[in-house]
């Protein structure tokens, strides 16, 4: 897709196992129509030095039961060189699909140089049985616009670092898991990986807020230097341990890393 395109009216039905869509050169593919069906969706950028492109799904896609994988096949060698990621714009948790029959840790699979960007208050509800997977060792971003909160009750599984960017608030309530492959068998586990980059949360801007006491347990939380960053607690009766422990992080000897 070499120009911005908007699809509106009626329904878009995804058939088969996987449907691929592509956006690049800074253009946006917007689907305002309701998405339905069972096929998974693969969102692809361009294999250049910049993967900049945008995908926007604005309907309540509760009758779509596929997964989403976001792939930026950029030839950039380091994330630091790339300011503009391949971005999925988020306005409502229902944009990302309906309730699955069973939990899938990789229902939203974010690859390197990819960004999930909330532009308003959004809640990702745990009842839909979906999770977020940071699948690449170079990591991915979750961004939130200033003045808004992304309440993430989806569990997040890490195989690389997670970067929180933009001035808004990422509120974590779904817990953290880790990805490992042992003897060609994939495991989703609570056990810490040996590689510290695979248990790293970097706050480059804005706020990370705890909705449950153990939402960062096992992570090294790094606060970027020379940036406006903070950690916040949301005291509710739903998690009394949050009042008792605050940010409970006992699995690692390096729970915080200032000035990264």
Number of helices: 1
What is the 3D form? globular
Oligomer: single chain
Question: What is the helix fraction of residues, given as a range?
Answer: under 10%
Q: Percent of residues in beta strands?
A: 35-45%
The mean pLDDT is: 90
User: Could you say which structural class the secondary elements and strand pairing correspond to?
Assistant: mainly beta
Instruction: Write down the Rg.
Output: 18 Å
List the uncertain runs. Answer: none
Tell me the number of strands: 25
Distance between the termini: 37 Å
Major sheet size, sense and barrel closure: 10 strands, parallel
Widest sheet, order of strands: 1-4-7-9-11-14-17-21-23-25
What string gives the helices and strands in order? EEEEEEEEEEEEEEEEEEEEEEEEHE
Give an overview of the whole structure.
A hairpin with a 2-residue loop joins strand 19 and strand 20. The strands form 4 sheets. Strands 1-4-7-9-11-14-17-21-23-25 form a 10-stranded parallel beta sheet, with no helix packed on it. By secondary structure, it is an all-beta fold. It contains 1 helix and 25 strands. It is globular, with a radius of gyration of 18 Å.
């Amino acid at each position: 897709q070499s120009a911005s395109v908007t699809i509106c009216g009626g329904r878009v039905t995804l058939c088969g196992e996987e449907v691929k869509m592509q956006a690049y050169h800074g253009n946006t593919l917007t689907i305002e129509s309701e998405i339905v069906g069972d096929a998974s969706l693969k969102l692809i950028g361009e294999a250049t030095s910049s993967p900049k492109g945008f995908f926007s799904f604005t309907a309540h896609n509760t009758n779509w039961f596929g997964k989403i994988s976001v792939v930026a096949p950029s030839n950039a060698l380091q994330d630091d060189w790339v300011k503009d990621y391949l971005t999925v714009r988020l306005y409502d948790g229902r944009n990302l699909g309906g309730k699955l029959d069973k939990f899938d840790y990789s229902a939203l699979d974010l690859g390197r140089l990819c960004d999930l960007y909330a532009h308003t208050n959004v809640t990702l509800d745990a009842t839909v049985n979906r999770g977020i997977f940071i699948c690449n060792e170079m990591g991915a971003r979750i961004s939130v616009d200033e003045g808004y909160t992304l309440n993430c009750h989806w569990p997040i599984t890490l195989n690389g670092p997670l970067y929180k960017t933009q001035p808004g608030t990422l509120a974590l309530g779904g817990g953290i898991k880790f990805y490992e492959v042992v003897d060609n068998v994939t495991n989703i586990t609570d056990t810490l990986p040996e590689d510290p980059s695979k248990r790293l949360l970097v706050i480059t801007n804005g706020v990370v807020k705890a909705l449950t006491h153990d939402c960062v347990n096992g992570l090294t939380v790094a606060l970027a230097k020379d940036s406006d960053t903070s950690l916040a607690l949301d005291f509710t009766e739903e998690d009394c341990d949050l009042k008792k422990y605050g940010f409970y992080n006992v699995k690692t000897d390096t729970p915080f890393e200032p000035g990264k």
